[in-house]
Write a structure and sequence with these properties.
Layout (H helix, E strand, L loop, with lengths): L2 E8 L3 H12 L4 E5 L12 H6 L1 H19 L15 H25 L3 E13 L2 E8 L3 E10 L3 E3 L12 E2 L1 H4 L8 E5 L3 H12 L3 E5 L11 H14 L2 E3 L3 E8 L2 E7 L5 E6 L1 E4 L3 E3 L32 E3 L10 H15 L13 E3 L4 E6 L2 H7 L3 E7 L4 H6 L5 E7 L5 E8 L2 H13 L4 H6 L9 H10 L7
Parallel strand pairs: 1-2, 1-5, 2-3, 5-16, 7-14, 8-9, 8-14, 9-10
Antiparallel strand pairs: 3-4, 4-5, 6-15, 11-12, 12-13, 17-18, 18-21, 19-20, 20-21
Helix pairs in contact: 1-8, 3-4, 3-6
Length: 475
């Protein structure tokens, strides 16, 4: 007999599990279906983010940063080390432990909030009386019915044509997190978030890293001034980035991978590497969902078509996160999950795309919210800009990390903050102040007038806001 629920969420990633918890908090009888398995075949909710994305990559970034500090920077603090080495197996084991802690935490939250969890792949069967029938293909096949369905099935890595992922030599983000030993030479195709973060991990551990990027500009979505500052830092670290390339044939063999490509001048080149990480974007995941069974509409990219409220073309079927339009960010999916649960309850869920922060967890970190200077110029909007370098920040000097700056963009007439861009230490944390400020329609003057703790990195934010009016105090 089919089990009946008010809300069934298909997918247990950041968007899905948060949507399920919020719906349960609002008094609905909720189920969440997720197919992800751990190494023992047990449930591993949390999606790409928890299992092969945000969480494990940050664990490896942290480990590799410790290693680089020990090898290159501890001496500056009077700390002497000899015979420094990296135990990659132990590093990967710690990463796996961090992942499992997050998996177990989500299962605990389901139990705490009385969300019924089904371990298996969810797919539409048919429209049922007042709702939808969904099949769960797991250890034992089950059937559930739902008045409301929230599809949160995420995305998959995009492979290079003619060079499928084997996760041994040609790696997606999944394989990139499981390289068993430090490759002598590592190639990356795609200088986006995943490429730069994974390149940073293995470069710090001793790999020679070469990044090939098809676009002619580095980090085209980032404010140009910030991107140039970041590129300068990466180049100094030894991360080799080639822009404007055209990838040709990719051959994988016992000795590694050979990539034929044309450089920006059109000259034929060959790159030979031990491992190749491909990070050229992600594609919406509807594998096994069986959308045609109920007439769920997809667009030409394979994404589920939704309106501004995440409603699909079907009554009471919603979709959120990477499987719909908008940025493929875990926190964007979370916000949509909460908003949809609240809309089902008759409330007014809210997601403001203009105040969704973006972060690249390299060193230096890169974070931004709102519009870039090039976007404002293209729109013909009059603006004022203010910057403040971390070289003039006392806490950054004490940390020994003075790379980068904070940049404010504000409306020329009203002084409303239009964008904040940071490259430097702890940018991922500092950006939150800007997000809050922009949500409340704050002016640069508002941030400039707020007392910030001394000494702190956040003082650079205050000083950049002061710089909009050309009145910095420490530079």
């Amino acid at each position: 007999m089919s089990k009946s629920f008010d809300v069934v969420v298909v997918g247990g990633g950041p968007g899905g599990y948060i949507a399920a918890i919020r719906a349960a908090q609002l008094g609905f009888n909720v189920a969440c279906i997720d197919d992800w398995k751990n190494g023992k075949g047990g449930p591993a909710p949390g999606g790409t983010c928890t299992n092969v994305g945000c969480i494990p990559s940050k664990a490896l970034l942290q480990s590799s940063e410790h290693f680089e500090h020990a090898g290159k920077h501890f001496a500056d603090h009077g700390i002497g080390l000899s015979d420094l080495k990296i135990d990659v197996a132990k590093m990967l084991g710690r990463k796996d432990t961090v992942v499992k802690q997050n998996n177990d935490g989500i299962l605990y939250l389901f139990k705490k909030n009385k969300v019924t969890f089904f371990h298996g792949r969810g797919s539409f069967v048919k429209a049922a009386d007042g709702g939808y029938e969904i099949k769960v293909a797991g250890a034992a096949e089950e059937s559930v019915t739902a008045k409301h369905v929230i599809v949160a099935t995420g995305s998959n890595p995009r492979a290079l044509p003619g060079a499928p992922f084997d996760e041994e030599n040609i790696l997606s983000n999944d394989g990139a997190l499981r390289i068993p030993s430090v490759p002598k030479k590592l190639g990356l195709i795609g200088a986006g978030v995943i490429g730069l973060e994974m390149g940073s991990v293995w470069r710090r551990l001793g790999s020679e890293v070469v990044v090939l990027e098809a676009l002619p500009t580095f980090l085209g979505a980032v404010d140009e001034q910030i991107a140039k500052e970041a590129a300068k830092a990466f180049n100094k670290q030894g991360l080799k980035i080639e822009l404007g390339v055209k990838i040709g044939e990719v051959k994988s063999g016992k000795k590694g991978v050979t990539v034929a490509y044309a450089n920006a001048k059109g000259e034929a080149q060959t790159l030979e590497v031990d491992k190749l990480i491909v990070s050229i974007g992600r594609v919406p995941n509807t594998i096994g969902l069986n959308p045609e069974a109920v007439g769920l509409k997809l667009d030409e990219r394979g994404a589920i078509v939704v309106d501004n409220d995440c409603k699909t073309n079907l009554p009471n079927v919603w979709a959120i996160g990477d499987v719909v339009r908008g940025p493929m960010l875990a926190h964007k999916a979370e916000e949509e999950g909460v908003a949809v649960a609240e809309r089902i309850a008759g409330q007014h869920g809210h997601v403001n795309f203009n105040t969704i922060p973006w972060v690249i967890y390299t060193s230096p970190e890169i974070a931004w919210v709102g519009q870039t200077e090039q976007q404002l110029k293209a729109a013909g909007r009059a603006y004022k800009a203010g910057t403040f370098p971390f070289t003039a920040n006392g806490r950054a000097r004490a940390l020994g990390d003075t790379t980068g700056m904070v940049k404010f963009l504000a409306d020329a007439k009203t002084d409303e903050i239009l964008g904040v861009h940071i490259v430097g230490p702890m940018a991922s944390e500092l950006i939150s102040e800007a997000v809050v400020a922009m949500e409340f329609k704050a002016s640069a003057e508002d941030i400039a007038r707020i007392c910030h703790a001394h000494p702190s990195l956040s003082e650079a934010t205050k000083e950049a806001a002061l710089a909009v009016d050309k009145r910095t105090l420490n530079f």
